[in-house]
Amino acid sequence: MKLLNTVGLRDVQAVYGGPEGRLWELIMGEQIHIGGLESSMDLAERAAIAPGAQGIDLCCCTGAGMRFLVRFRGVAKMTGVDATPKMIAVGKERCAEEGLADAISFVEANVCNSGLPSASADFVWGEDAWCYVEDKPTLIAEAARLVKSGGTIAFTDWVEGDVPLSEEEAERYLRFMKFPSVLTIAEYGDLLKRNGCEVQVAMNTGRYARCVDLYLDMLNMQLTYDALKIIGFDMPLMEAMGGEMNFMRELAHAGKIAQGLFVAIKQ
After folding, report:
1. Phi, psi (deg, nearest 5) at residue 24
2. Which domain CATH number covers 83?
3. Domains of the chain: total
4. pTM to 2 decimals?
5. Is the four-CA dihedral 6, 10, 13, 18 of positive or negative sign?
6. What is the largest CA-CA distance in the chain?
7. What residue numbers bound the domain in which 83 lies?
8. What does the pLDDT profile of the chain (267 residues) look like in tens digits?
């Protein structure tokens, strides 16, 4: 595990409550995760998410993942937990606009202590968001507490790749992304096992590098004006952020950062 102790929940709330969050949605779409719909479909298939199921999305952001699950997998009820009030407000509006408010609810809370009942979900879900959580052991324990025996924990996340990050690379990457830590696939697997889960899938999706290439192409070739408008036409800031994203692209192509996919069954 690589750590950056100077980053915490308030930093994440500032990102997603401000212009940086809007910038990520501009370049990654409403589903702010690597691979968009393709990734969601893949995770849902591997996790065998079934019609009529009830799930909990930890770090749900605006609820795009929950709307996907209700619309494309026939999930009956989703509860999303997030700590950023603005994202919850936007999520509620979007659910209402899409006619999905009856099936989706939001809880404003720290995902490590959601306050939801134990063993209340058929599955716990997450997409490229648990990297923002400071206490990942407690997060996995909370996911295991919430899911029923025989239920599923299914998530993707940004992880350290097969090639280790140097300490300097990790510090720069975590600081830019506002991640307090980044785990390896094996470390996530160990946490799941320690919390009474049988790991069925723990893999590198192979999507990360090509998606970062796409995001940079979009920013440089199509969305430059839109991005500048979001950050107040601050060209030095735009250039600085572009430099950090190019650094991320280098790390991705070197196999040092990746998108991990995990499916585990609570015993």
Report:
1. -60, -40
2. 3.40.50.150
3. 1
4. 0.96
5. negative
6. 53
7. 2-266
8. 999 999 999 999 998 999 989 999 999 999 999 999 999 999 999 999 999 999 999 999 999 999 999 999 999 999 999 999 999 999 999 999 999 999 999 999 999 999 999 999 999 999 999 999 999 999 999 999 999 999 999 999 999 999 999 999 999 999 999 999 999 999 999 999 999 999 999 999 999 999 999 999 999 999 999 999 999 999 999 999 999 999 999 999 999 999 999 999 999
